[in-house]
Amino acid sequence: MDRIAAALLLACACGFSAGRAQAAPTDPAQIQTEAYVNLVQADQSLDAGRLDEALSQYQAARGYYLQLATDFPGWEPRVIQYRKAYCDNQIADIERRKGGGQMEEPPELEPLPEEARPEPARPTPSAVEPATATASSVELDYLKSRIASLEAEIAEFDTIQNELDAVTAENDKLRKDLEAANRQLADRARGEQASTEGLRAELAAKEERIQALQKDLESKKQLDQALNEMEAQANELRAQNERLNQEIKTLDGELDGAEVRADQAELKARQAGEKLAKAEQDLQKARKEQAGAGKQVAALPHEAGPEKTGRREEKAKTAAKEPSTEEPKAGLASSPVAATVPPRPVPQGMLASDYVRQLLQEGDNDAALATVQEARKAFPTDMNLVLIEGIALIRLQRYPEAAAMLIDLAKSNPRNAEIHATLGAAMMGAGFYEEARETLLKAIKLDRNVGGEYYYNLAQLYALVDPIDLKQARRFYQQARDLGVAADKQLEKAMK
Hints:
By secondary structure, this protein is mainly alpha-helical. Among the domains are: 2-122; 352-450, Alpha Horseshoe (Serine Threonine Protein Phosphatase 5, Tetratricopeptide repeat), CATH 1.25.40. It is built from 16 helices and no strands.
């Protein structure tokens, strides 16, 4: 009974603290305590005549016992079954009393092992009051200690709650710090991404610069090669110039000899004139003597008279003093076309060849032809001037004359790519397509960077002239485009 009373007091304490803890009990001991508290309170309400309150409390107690029997079947099954049957009897009795029936004696139940069976008859008020007072005193003492314990628990709960609030605040602060850190990381990531993109762009620019430098290096190598070739040509020209100077010295010596011979011829001519005058006098005398024979003799002085003899001697002297008018060497033919405009004066400090090329670039082809022809009068054997004159004739569409002028020049200079390329263009304009193709191929073989227009000429020949080879035409056209030649839509259409 002491254990039951303690359980009852604990149940009351739990009832008083229900305002703080609202969770349903899950421990079987706690459930049993709750059920017993409701059972005791139901008996007290029934004794006081509060049938509705007693009925509700009996039903609550019965529900707890039913929960124990269902969820914890091994928890004191005989006690639980006994109290559940007691609740059922009391509920049925109250319902009959509320329906107008009389109170019935409850059936006899099997006594419990640890507690006596409740009396079936209701005790008298005089007998109940001492037990009730004692029970109330015990309950109050227990409730006070339970309240003190609960207050301690509440204080501990408040401490835990404060700690929880502090942890929650710290958690909120940490969450905010985390969000700020995430934002900083995002901003830093965006900045690093922008920086990375900038570095990639800079790297791409540097790679393009490296490629450009590599192309420049390749161009420089080609330029060095061209300079070496030009230097070799310059050495060859120096050797030719030395030979020409030697020939000039020889010619000067011959000219001096010719002048001496001319003076001697002039002296002999004067002597012959004097003899001729004397012979005329003798002839006049003879005419008087022999009239018929005088006519034949008179013809002789007329043919070899002093006037004509003097003119012949004058011409011989002039021819000896003037420059030789012999035919130029092979490859340095004279100009086949006369210029239609006067030549331009070459600016001071500028080579004639460079000035003529400048005129050709400006499109003043007639003036370029006249100027180069004037320059060739002073330097008739200059290979560069002959080549430029051929280019001027091509610009003026005098293709046959240009081809005839450049053929011998190409034979004299078999390793000069520009001469062969120019000759190929002239032959192409003149209609000698097969010869033009061979000459242009030879020029490109000598120097692959001879000029984009010559690749373009080859592309035209392979695309438009039999035998047609569109593959070769497209290859040479692409090389011409790579060297800066403008696109030709008609030629591209023909190559498809």
